[in-house]
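Researcher: I'm preparing a figure for a lab meeting and need a structural model of a single chain. I don't have an experimental structure, so a prediction will have to do for now. The sequence is pasted below. Please return the structure as tokens so I can convert it later.
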Amino acid sequence: MKSIVFKRLYQAHLYGGLFVALHLVVLILTGSVLLFRGELETDRPLLTTQELTPWTGETLDRILTDAITRFPGERPLAIFPDESDNRLIQVRLGKENSKKFRGARKLLYSGKTALPIEAPQNDDGFFGTLLVLHRELFLGTYGKLYVGFVGLILVFVLLSGFFIYGNFMRGKSFGEIRDPRSTRAYSDAHRFIGACAFAWLLLVSMTGVLLSFNGPLLKIYQAGELKSLSQEYANVSTQAALPKLATVVETAQRLKPHDRLTYIAFPDTEFSIPSHFLILMNGTTAFTSKLSELLVVDRETGTEAQARQLPIYLKLALISEPLHFGNYGGMVLKLVWLAFSLLSMALTASGVAAFILKKTRKPADPVHKSTPFTPFQSRAMDRVKRYFPAIVLGLGAIGIVLTLVSDGWIGWIGAATVALPLVFVIGSLRAAIKRRGSS
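Model: Understood. Here is the structure written out token by token.
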């Protein structure tokens, strides 16, 4: 019975891996470039040294006044600091008084001078196009869901590989290539690379799935929590003129004095309720800066506010983006993400090569005999070889937590812990080069 289950699991792993292979190549290549978008993008608006002062609530009022003066008849949807540079202020206006964010007008302002900055009305630049390819394969909303489906298959492939890995390691040393000149070398290399990349690839695939399904998650939020909020405040006036944003900001900061405001949704929009502003506040520590808390501020006076917890699925979706792109821990963590991306490319290539060579090899082909390549043969490694993916997963989880909770030396230790499997890859490459040089 066990052998039948193992055989079925192995076949599912094999054909599932072949299905995601080409998708994974595209996603890894585009994701690797997007990882360094902040360093490579040259068309971001530049601010002068006189514009370094953070924005204020009064500045937001001036920005909003300018926006609705320039585009009368359009509905204010949201105003928020730019994610990559909080000296810039983003504004969203609903065209033709629309409450929808899709197709909204995008405006960019200086947070110091409240003057508009020329900004593209679409994201069709090089990095914008690359992001669309990575996110939805140029297939729109359905493409985004399809990428999420591919991510789910990849998660299954990784977990199935995790369970069948130990069976293949019986009688072998960790990292052993039984016959470097035979087709089995690709299978052995695939297992070794998979064990090293398992934790990182599982993290990136699971966070990618959450990001792909953020649209349906928002729909669930609208139908659930947002609808409940609307019903709770059904008797509150929705006709009052909007208060000054300076008052709204002051109220939010009074309720959460140690947090920073990251988003204001105006009342009566697609993602808010008619009677209140919805405001997102983030903490200021390394960890809490990646978590958002919801404030509900009344539209009549702007002086009454309540704090609400976002549902867990939205919190997970929000924290998935930095984890997916690895852009929260500085250049060191980005380089670690890049190294694992290249390792995942090698994992995909070795798996496909092993499958093709196995299918095309003729029974009469001679089998080469040579001394196995065993770069990590030792008693200690032989004891843990079957559990290496689980050990990597545990260490990777610890490392990710450390990089999230601290951006100091603890964060450096976390990044090093995540990168630990790369040491084995480098060691194997060095041993292979040394062996080739001595042969």
